[in-house]
């Protein structure tokens, strides 16, 4: 390919990526600052050149319907043709699983058999994943040299050539479904994800990740940043020198080591835990939260806008407190760090409204 054609293709790729970013801004899934950062431009430049996105491009995508579970015999792959051999019935499930595994690994794979799961490998480039119901199969576009998108019985896998870092490259992955389960490893660069119906697992070693609503979220952040929308189910975070922001959740299991967590949620049941070592966490409890707080603080600080009882001194102290009956348990361990609790039910002056 000559230089003129190469330049034209690059310009087309960049324009497609820009349109994708503009669509996400129009849908409220990216801020102007995040969009400008993705495009490598100043915010004023992006605002001046951004074009409005048509309403059709903002049409919601329906979640895929769940599949009813099969019977135990069908799930084992044995069907109704199993011969009546003494002692074999107990081993049928195990035999069925082994047979199914062998068939999957030996038989040719069909893309129609691929589940709506994603595995993403990102090192030093920007990737936007978006849903597009008009497609029949996932499509990769942009500066894709060195990237491989493949399918298997485990889902769609986006791999990066070993040792290759892309710098300022920008790539789009459009999929015809709402991702079910997603696992992503980020070593520098940026990742924007749509809503994830099931579990999202993230390993962030430098870089930025933004995701919409999530079924369950498990993330390890080391020197990077994560912004997530509503988390419907389980939330497990480990932050090591990075930053995490959760816009809404009903669960909290988190460890912060030299980083920052900003969390907003509604706690009404169950047991929740926060550990802060040399970092900080700001927890906002939405109206209706009912919390029984217990905390241990060593050379640190805990600040709450609802009443708490403190025992101990400056070096070691324990705190306890109840908000709106204390139906959910929240335990905090703080070492050389800081935790701030802000219950939105509490008005200035310390009045609590249940």
What does this structure look like?
- Helix 1 (3-26) runs antiparallel to helix 2 and helix 2 packs across helix 3.
- This protein has a domain at 8-55.
- The protein has 354 residues and is an alpha/beta fold.
- 16% of the residues lie in helices and 44% in strands.
- It has helices spanning 3-26, 32-39, 43-49, 72-75, 92-106, and strands spanning 118-122, 125-131, 139-142, 147-152, 155-160, 170-175, 182-186, 189-193, 196-204, 207-211, 214-222, 224-231, 235-240, 243-249, 253-257, 260-265, 271-277, 280-285, 291-298, 301-304, 308-312, 316-323, 328-335, 338-343, 346-347, 351-352.
- Mean pLDDT is 82; it is low at 53-82 and 102-107.
- It has five helices and 26 strands.
Strand order of the largest sheet: 4-5-1-7-9-11-13-15-17-23-19-22-21
Secondary-structure class = alpha/beta
Q: How big a fraction of the residues is strand?
A: 35-45%
What is the number of E strands? Answer: 26
Q: What is the average per-residue confidence, as pLDDT, rounded to a whole number?
A: 82
Produce a short descriptive summary.
The chain has a domain at 8-55.
Ordered list of secondary-structure elements with their pairings:
Layout: H1 3-26, H2 32-39, H3 43-49, H4 72-75, H5 92-106, E1 118-122, E2 125-131, E3 139-142, E4 147-152, E5 155-160, E6 170-175, E7 182-186, E8 189-193, E9 196-204, E10 207-211, E11 214-222, E12 224-231, E13 235-240, E14 243-249, E15 253-257, E16 260-265, E17 271-277, E18 280-285, E19 291-298, E20 301-304, E21 308-312, E22 316-323, E23 328-335, E24 338-343, E25 346-347, E26 351-352
Parallel strand pairs: 1-5, 1-7, 2-6, 2-8, 7-9, 8-10, 9-11, 10-12, 11-13, 12-14, 13-15, 14-16, 15-17, 16-18, 17-23, 18-24, 19-23, 20-24
Antiparallel strand pairs: 3-6, 4-5, 19-22, 21-22, 25-26
Helix pairs in contact: 1-2, 2-3
């Amino acid at each position: 390919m000559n230089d003129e054609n190469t330049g034209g293709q690059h310009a087309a790729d960049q324009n497609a990526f820009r349109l994708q970013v503009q669509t996400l801004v129009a849908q409220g899934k990216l801020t102007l600052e995040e969009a400008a950062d993705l495009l490598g431009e100043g915010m004023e430049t992006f605002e001046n050149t951004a074009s409005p996105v048509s309403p059709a491009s903002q049409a919601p995508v329906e979640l895929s319907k769940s599949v009813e579970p099969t019977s135990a015999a069908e799930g084992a792959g044995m069907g109704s043709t199993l011969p009546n051999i003494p002692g074999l019935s107990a081993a049928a499930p195990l035999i069925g699983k082994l047979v199914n595994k062998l068939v999957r690994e030996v038989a040719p794979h069909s893309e129609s058999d691929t589940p709506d799961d994603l595995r993403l490998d990102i090192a030093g480039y920007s990737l936007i994943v978006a849903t597009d119901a008009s497609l029949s199969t996932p499509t990769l576009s942009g500066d894709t040299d060195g990237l491989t998108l493949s399918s298997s019985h485990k889902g769609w896998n986006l791999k990066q050539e070993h040792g290759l870092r892309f710098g300022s490259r920008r790539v789009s992955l459009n999929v015809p479904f709402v991702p079910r389960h997603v696992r992503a490893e980020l070593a520098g660069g940026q990742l924007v994800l749509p809503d994830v119906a099931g579990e999202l697992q993230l390993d962030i070693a430098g870089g930025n990740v933004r995701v919409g609503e999530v079924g369950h979220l498990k993330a390890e952040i080391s020197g990077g940043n994560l912004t997530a929308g509503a988390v419907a189910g389980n939330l497990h975070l480990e932050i090591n020198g990075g930053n995490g922001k959760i816009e809404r959740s009903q669960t909290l299991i988190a460890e912060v080591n030299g980083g920052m967590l900003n969390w907003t949620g509604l706690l009404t049941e169950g047991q929740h835990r926060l550990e802060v070592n040399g970092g900080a966490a700001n927890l906002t409890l939405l109206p209706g939260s009912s919390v029984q707080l217990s905390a241990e603080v060593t050379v640190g600080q805990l600040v709450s806008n609802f009443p708490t009882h403190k025992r101990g001194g400056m070096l070691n102290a324990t705190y306890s407190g109840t908000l709106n009956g204390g139906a959910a348990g929240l335990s905090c361990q703080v070492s050389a760090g800081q935790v701030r609790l802000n219950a939105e039910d509490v008005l200035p002056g310390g009045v609590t409204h249940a």
